[in-house]
Each structure stands twice: as structure tokens, then as C-alpha cells.
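## Example record

The block below lists the input lines for one assembly entry, exactly as stored, with component labels intact.
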Amino acid sequence: MKKRLAPLVIALAALGATDVRADDPLPSWNKGPSREAILQFVAKVTTPGPGFVPEPERIATFDNDGTLWAEQPLYFQLFFALERVKALAPQHPEWNDKEPFASLLKGDVKGALAGGEPALGQIVMATHAGMTTAEFDQLVRDWVKSARHPKTGRLYTEMVYQPMLELIAYLRANGFKTFIVSGGGIDFMRPWTERVYGIPPEQVVGSSVKLSFELRDGRPVLLRLPEVGFIDDKAGKPVGIQQHIGRRPIAAFGNSDGDLQMLQWAAAGEGPRFCVLVHHTDSEREWAYDRISSIGRLDKALDEAKAKGWTVVDMKNDWKVIHPFEKR
Amino acid sequence: MKKRLAPLVIALAALGATDVRADDPLPSWNKGPSREAILQFVAKVTTPGPGFVPEPERIATFDNDGTLWAEQPLYFQLFFALERVKALAPQHPEWNDKEPFASLLKGDVKGALAGGEPALGQIVMATHAGMTTAEFDQLVRDWVKSARHPKTGRLYTEMVYQPMLELIAYLRANGFKTFIVSGGGIDFMRPWTERVYGIPPEQVVGSSVKLSFELRDGRPVLLRLPEVGFIDDKAGKPVGIQQHIGRRPIAAFGNSDGDLQMLQWAAAGEGPRFCVLVHHTDSEREWAYDRISSIGRLDKALDEAKAKGWTVVDMKNDWKVIHPFEKR
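Predicted C-alpha cells for the full assembly:
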């Protein structure tokens, strides 16, 4: 589909067209209220009249984990971290007796994560800091090229949601600037978001470690320090949006309580607003989880979406296909 | 000039043209090595061949104070802060006996700033924090509309450099994405950079205070806290570039030692690089200052520019006009 859509999008964008419905721009979306809400919102903000929004203000923000790609059985970035722990273990003999590393190295992920956020923090810092930004970039590129999802055997970048790819392309064809606003690491996402989503590095907002500029033998490097710089989750998302984008999105897409404040922030602006939750309802083609899941918990945000009339995408019923590889 | 150039730029951009020299794109630049260096660099990166750079990698970063607009006799943001101190004084009777406010309120700016960075920090926090982002945005918009430069009587946004406006437009017409990377406040610049430079809020990198997301009577706001979030100066500039843009610029423009690390960072990448310092050499039409100035000191960076063959713009000899209002 991406290949078929691209020339159309380019042709229509060149003509300044704001309506690509002539050839269905959302072929992986079943007819129904979610698809209809997307089309109506885009028509409203692109049509001269009371709901019209000038192009520079057409900012759309997307959560990544669980919204643009899958997040089960663990956040994919955690699989990257676990692989790095194994690769680094020979240089850290002390990890054999030190949690959470000892459990990890025995293959007991659950045991390692039983230590909660402090354990997670230790794993992230041990694997995401202590190298230059260029070195980290290369580690991510190598991993993304080869690592495979434990359930599907697919590359992680294949585990993206086809309907969301279509939605992103449709918004961009209608003058939107699309941003990722994710709790995931900003520099973990940037090496592949342009290729996979068409979202360039400068339009990725995420969590970060502190950086330090240094001259090494006269050559400048940026060192990744084992210190949290910013956590782009929950109340951090509107903060990240303001610091990075400086405008309030008119459309925001998430899937969990971690996205609630981003949706509240988008919803509170003037003019037309579009707030969307992707609800994981498909236990056969994907995973079904919401209120009691430890990953991607969707509880308060689901209540608020219902109370405020936000769009809740029902993956099982709204999506014809989940991943691009299902299409042949 | 801006008005005359804009249709040309748009027309050529639509044609995908990479050479706008047919009608001089830099009319306020005298013929000479600086102008020639600009034209040669742009020709090199846009012409298929060994120096070609794909459009997404054509990132150019500009310092603001002293590079895009003037910075004498004080950074313009400081004039904004001083006006705010006066406006807020009735609510702060204690300021009459407390430095640096007491001196400021007596009109003694020099005395107030004698307290150095801590004094400056107090002034900035008292005037840039303690309100919502929306309230601060409005304060800046109001100030920019009415405040006037003490020497020229012009609006501060008229004190921009005409040759740099042409340069920014020329780069954009050649597929560059232009960013501001300034020690100034990110949210102090954003309300006017799009109108004045054509640089949208999401392409402004600057210093910031910490923000806090809160619900006020159920309505979300972002509060500006009296706490430094990030200082986008000196070694902070490459850090700000990485955190915000995530790509290394191929062209960087500054005017002081505060820009040295940004230029070093840009220079150290692969392929063609363009590092430029604007040297304030015109005591008649503007100000002449460099190695011993307390504002915009240009000392180490000037030495490094000479050693490394970076382009040093001589304002007096390279620029036909300084500000747009000189043209009639």
C-alpha cells in the first residue's frame, strides 16, 4: 500500500489538493466511526470556513509504542537494552551477582524487572549511556537491521501499524506536520523514524539522557551521560511538546494513560481538535489489553475519552490489517 | 527587498531550481570573498557530484543575537526584562531595597548588572517565570509590537540584518531547513521568528526554564518555573542541536565565542561544511566590537576561524545595508 499511495500523495500535494478521497487514502481502515472521524476532521481543517486551520498550525503528534508500532510482550527498546546487557556482560563480571543484571543474564526478564523503575533505570543507563551520540546511533542502526520480534520473527520496524502509516501519510498530504512524542528514547527512535514513518529526526520528541560536549584529541564529540535528561511521558508530554515544538497540536494520537496529558493539552486549544486513542482489542492478530496491563495501561484515558467524546480506535473492528507484512 | 525576493524564491522553489543567481539572491551583499563563499557552498551541496548533500541533510543553524539581529547596547531580551521589572515593581515593594532590582528601578542598569550572572539570573527568573506559557507568549507579543530600541527608535524586530534575511531565504530556496540556535530564551523568540525570519517555532532552539503541566479548574496549563531548564550557549549549543534537531548542521552562523562550539560541531562532520562568523566592524552604521566586548565577545572564535579558514563576514565592507529600514 505504501508504494501505491506515495505517488498519489506526491501528485496531489503538488497540486495543492486537500482532498485525496477520490482514491481511498485509508484502505486499511474499515468503514465506521473512526475512519469517518478522521475524514471529517481533515475535511474541516482544510476547507475554507469556520473550522479552517492554516497549514503551519496543522501539528499532529503521535505516541510511538502501542500507537505506531507494537509494544508487547515488552517495549521494543527494552529488547534492545537486554541485548546490550548480554553484549556488555563480559566487560562487567560484577553483573553476575548484581541485580537486575544477574537475573537478566540468566534469561529471567521478569525477575529483573521485579525491581521496578529503579531496576529499569539501571538497565537503561548501563546500556544507553557511556558512549558518544555517534556510537549509540550506530548501535541502534545495527540492532534495527537484525533483531527480530520473539513472537512474529519479524524485524521490529516491520511491527508498525499499517493503518497508522496510511493515516500519517494522509495527514501530511493535507498539510500537516507530523511529530512523534514518545516516552521512548529520542535517540533510539531517530535512526529509523524517517525511513519507516517519514518523520525526520527533528520531528521526534522523546526521553533523553544528558549530553556533554567534549573535544577528544581536538575532535568534538557529544557524550551520553548516565543521567536522566528528560522523561517524555504523562505530564512530561505536554512539556516536551512545548519545549520542542512550541505550538499546541490540533491532533494527538496515543494508546495509554501515558498519553492522557498530551491529549488533554491538544484538546484544550481553540478551534477544531482531534484526540484519538488506539485501543488494543485484537487478541488474535495482535494483543488485547487495557485497564490492567503493566505495559500500555489504558484506564483513566479510556474513561476520559468516553466522557469527552474522543475517538477510540477499535483495532479489531476498525483495522483491515494490522501490520504491513500481512498484505501481499 | 523581502517583498521583491519572495515571489522569485517561491517560483524557483516550485520548479525545483537550485540556482537563483539569475536574479541576484543576495543584493545586499557586496561582491567579495564572503558572498563568493556563500554562493560556492550552496552550488557545491546542490549540484550532483562529490559535494552533493541530499535535502534532508541540508541543516543550517543561526545564532540570533548579533548574528540575525543587533545586540547592542544590551541583549534585546534584557530590555524586555527591564521593562517587566518596572511593570512588576508595584507588586514587589521589597525590590526597592534589594539588588539588582533597586539599581534597575533607579535606572542604573550598569549597577544592576555589576552583580554578574547571579544578578542576571535573578532578573530573568523574576520576569520570565511564574506565569503560564500562554501568558508569557502574550507579554512578548505585546512588547515586540511596541518597544523601541534606545538608539535607533526602531522596533527591535526592525533591527534585524537585511543581508542575513537574504541569506536565510537563499538557503531555504535551495532546500535548506533553517534553525535558530541561540542563547536567548526559546519562548522569547518563538512569538516573532516566523513572521520576521520565516523560521517556525519548532525550528527555534534556545535557553529555557523548566515547565510544569497542571490542571487549573480542569483546564491544562504549562507553568513557567523559576528554574533553569537549559542554557543554549557555548558547549550547550551542540547539545541543544542534538536534543532538538538530532542531525549535525552542515552550515552554522554565529558572531561570538558563544558560538564557537556550534561551529566546531558543524565543522567536524563529513562532506562540505560552511562555518561563518559575522564580525561587527561597522562603528558608523552599527557597532564595532570583538575581543574585549562584554556583549558578543569574539576572541577565541575569531582566532579559530582564521586558523581553520572559516568565513568571517566583515559587516562594514561586505554589507551594502545593515537593516531593512535603510532601504527605501
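Residues 129 and 224 of chain A are 5 Å apart (CA to CA). The first helix of chain A runs from residue 2 to 15.
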